[in-house]
Design a protein that fits this description.
Radius of gyration of chain B: 13 Å
Shape of chain A: globular
Largest interface: A-B, 26 and 28 residues
Largest sheet of chain B: 7 strands, mixed
Strand content of chain B: over 45%
Largest sheet of chain A: 6 strands, mixed
Order of helices and strands of chain A: EEEEEEEEEEE
Number of strands of chain A: 11
Distance between the termini of chain A: 41 Å
Strand content of chain A: over 45%
Helix content of chain A: under 10%
Oligomer: heterodimer
Radius of gyration of chain A: 14 Å
């Protein structure tokens, strides 16, 4: 059974720092991996999606990498801002055809202080 | 505004009561799903649908029913609520289940408490 782990569970940094969030998964047979952001009391917003054949994806100050063979992904946030404070979730997609089933990690709660 | 709309946002039930969580999307998405989110656990899939008239079970389906009579709506029914169903419920949809670059659009969530 696929298990997704995110470390650390919580992270507090001063504004301006570059930071890395980690995601690991136990079964490397994934179709893709997504990073989501969740604000308190709100739904999830997709940040980046990396296909299994890709090594990384970038969007603005965010960069996500994927190493399927080692079962790891990292989300790099450059020059963090207070507005980045949220919970970040990673999820792997299992199943290469048809139904899109996602297995989620428990998230990293990020607090960026001014 | 286009997106996924969930109602109600908050609900308190007594054990044994029934209720329906509503989910509607106006993006003509083929795929819809329900997840629950509990403290210390990742989101877990309850039920999903790949089109009108087609539903299937996810990881934690017990105690929940779904139907998909239209493309837009995917309600989640609790027939006899139990305290273990206290959770935050999220509905999510995507355009096509066959697209590899498919991202899920999530609703804002429904917080359910069962006493």
């Amino acid at each position: 059974k696929q298990e997704v782990t995110q470390i650390p569970a919580a992270l507090s940094v001063p504004e301006g720092e570059n930071l890395v969030l980690n995601c690991s998964f136990t079964d490397s047979a994934i179709y893709n991996l997504q990073w989501f952001r969740q604000d308190p009391g709100k739904g999830l917003t997709s940040l980046l999606l990396i296909q299994s054949s890709q090594r990384e994806q970038t969007s603005g100050r965010l960069n996500a990498s994927l190493d399927k063979s080692s079962g790891r992904s990292t989300l790099y946030i450059a020059a963090s801002q207070p507005g980045d404070s949220a919970t970040y979730l990673c999820a792997v997609r299992e199943g290469y055809t048809g139904f899109q089933k996602l297995v989620f990690g428990t998230g990293t709660r990020l607090l960026v202080s001014p | 505004n286009a997106g996924v709309t969930q109602t109600p946002k908050f609900q308190v039930l007594k054990t044994g009561q029934s209720m329906t969580l509503q989910c509607a999307q106006d993006m003509n998405h083929e795929y819809m799903s329900w997840y629950r989110q509990d403290p210390g656990m990742g989101l877990r899939l309850i039920h999903y649908s790949v089109g009108a008239g087609i539903t299937d079970q996810g990881e934690v389906p017990n105690g929940y029913n779904v139907s998909r009579s239209t493309t837009e709506d995917f309600p989640l029914r609790l027939l006899s609520a139990a305290p273990s169903q206290t959770s935050v419920y999220f509905c999510a949809s995507s355009y096509s289940r066959y697209s590899g670059a498919n991202v899920l659009t999530f609703g804002a969530g429904s917080r359910l408490t069962v006493l």
